[in-house]
Amino acid sequence: TQLLEQSPQFLSIQEGENLTVYCNSSSVFSSLQWYRQEPGEGPVLLVTVVTGGEVKKLKRLTFQFGDARKDSSLHITAAQPGDTGLYLCAGTDSWGKFQFGAGTQVVVTP
Amino acid sequence: GAVVSQHPSWVICKSGTSVKIECRSLDFQATTMFWYRQFPKQSLMLMATSNEGSKATYEQGVEKDKFLINHASLTLSTLTVTSAHPEDSSFYICSARLDFNNEQFFGPGTRLTVL
Hints:
The structure holds 2 protein chains of 2 kinds. By secondary structure, chain A is mainly beta. Helices cover 0% and strands 56% of the residues of chain A. Chain A is built from no helices and 11 strands. Chain A has strands spanning 5-7, 10-14, 19-24, 29-37, 44-49, 55-58, 61-65, 71-76, 85-93, 98-100, 104-109. In chain A, strands 2, 4, 5, 9, 10 and 11 form a 6-stranded mixed sheet that branches. In chain A, strands 1-3-8-7-6 form a 5-stranded antiparallel sheet, with no helix packed on it. In chain A, a hairpin with a 5-residue loop joins strand 7 (61-65) and strand 8. Chain A is globular and about 45 Å long. Chain B is mainly β. Chain B is built from no helices and 11 strands. Chain B has strands spanning 4-7, 10-13, 19-25, 32-38, 44-51, 57-58, 67-73, 76-81, 90-97, 104-106, 110-114. Chain B is globular, with a radius of gyration of 13 Å. At the A-B interface, strand 4, strand 5, strand 9 and strand 10 of A face strand 9 and strand 10 of B.
């Protein structure tokens, strides 16, 4: 059973467009991470959010943690082909169990 | 960020042989490391939690006698796939966890192909 639901599963957009990926759960998470993975490589940590309502920015990427710490979103502004990859959210729930979402495959075409 | 390495990055072996994969945390000590398996276009699936100095904890459905894990030091965990078969072919990824904030840092993965 997937504690973390990601949507959409797949997203294909043109360079310059914006996109948002969602990560939702019925469980409360003490912290939540976002990773990006490229083919044949391990996931790379983008950000960790720990406080309900927290917003973090990383250049064109904006991460938000829901007030109740059950959901998160990743927004990319003016996407570029280099943003292409598998985006994974992952979190540690209140029982200390760490789990990944199913992932969102993002493709940005020139 | 913290760096985790894996070796080898890819391996091809014959059916019935055993393969060892190493996972090292290069610039920090990790009491806990994790081993994941990933199939094409899918997310990571946790296989086991490797604890330094004690036995690994395996997820449901993962055979502990087939996937042997050893975490003999705070910077090294090994996964041995014993008597490998073609269905064991996959991308194996390890991670090491920072004790103070539970962040996990991932190795680059090992592509295993069993002929």
